[in-house]
Amino acid sequence: MQANEAAIISLLRKTGRDGVEAVITHLRQGGFFCVPASVHHHNNFEGGLAKHSLEVYAEAMNVYNEYTDYFPYLEPVLPVDSITLCALLHDVCKTDVFCMRGGRPCGTGIPNNPHGRKSVALLLEWGLSLTDEERIAIAWHMGKWTKDADCLPEEVEVRFQEAQRKTPLVSVIRRADSLASRKAIEEQMNDE
After folding, report:
1. Does residue 143 fall inside a structural domain?
2. CA gap 146, 124 in Å, rounded
3. pTM of the predicted protein model
4. Per-residue confidence of the chain (192 residues) as pLDDT tens digits?
5. Which listed site, 54, 55, 152, 178, has its alpha carbon 20 to 30 Å from 7?
6. Which residue range(s) make up the domain with 157?
């Protein structure tokens, strides 16, 4: 867990973004580096949220390289710092939602929807300077599975597509989150 914490903090600091030190303080104080990423799904173990965040970051960089190899014109509209921040911080909303009790992952009872928008709100509250594109990418990192009280379930996919049209960062973060989650589930199944 300490290695994951050190890696995340180093990557966040490299962005040089206004407010990043306050975010790091909140991550440490809130238990981000110790909590599971879920109760029943991927990375459902102590330190799972930090591990998942690093896995999403690694996948996001792979997706970025793939996209910019094929479409070099995307490079200027996909800043690496934006990818880093979105990948590492997309799930900060889970810090108070999951915990470990008796060595087992469990929920705290605190609501977590709208999931992505909750992460955006926390980051802004903590003083992180986010671009509009970063806010959209974090808010829509669940893609068509986003639960949002502002729209009906049948509207979610249309709104997700609109978000993707606003910035390619949405597609990078969504794809990276999906790939990292799927790989973590497969890894856990193979370990059992």
Report:
1. yes
2. 20
3. 0.92
4. 799 999 999 999 999 999 999 999 999 999 999 999 988 878 888 999 999 999 999 999 999 999 999 999 999 999 999 999 999 999 999 998 888 899 898 888 877 667 788 999 999 999 999 999 999 999 988 776 666 656 677 787 888 888 899 999 999 999 999 999 888 888 777 765
5. 178
6. 2-185
Residue 184: Cβ-neighbour burial (10 angstroms; 0-12, 13-18, 19+):
buried
Query: Widest CA span of the chain, in angstroms?
Result: 51
Cα Rg of the chain, angstroms? 16
Q: Token digits for 190?
A: 């193979």
DSSP character at residue 107: E
Q: How far apart are the first and last CA of the chain?
A: 21
* DSSP E strand stretches across 27-180: 98-101, 104-107
Give a yes or no: residue 158 inside a domain: yes
